[in-house]
Amino acid sequence: MNKTIDIISLGCSKNLVDSEVLMGLMEANGYQCTHDSEDPQGDIVVVNTCGFINDAKEESINTILEFAQAKTEGRIEKLFVMGCLSERYLADLEKEIPEVDGWYGKFNYKKLLQDLAQNFTSGPGPSDKFLEGKRHITTPRHYAYVKISEGCDRHCAYCAIPLITGRHQSRPMQEILDEVRQLVKDGTKEFNVIAQELTYYGVDIDGKQHIAELIEQMADIPGVEWIRLHYAYPTHFPWDLLRVMREKPNVCKYLDIALQHISDNMLQRMQRHVTKAETYDLIERMRREVPGIHIRTTLMVGFPGETEDDFEELKTFVKWARFERMGAFAYSEEEGTYSEKHYEDDVPEDVKQHRLDKLMRIQQNISAELEAGKVGQVLKVIIDRQEGDYYIGRTEFCSPEVDPEVLIPVSERKLTIGNFYQVEITDSEEFDLYGTTIN
Question: What does residue 132 show for φ and ψ, rounded to 5 degrees?
Answer without folding.
Answer: -70, -40
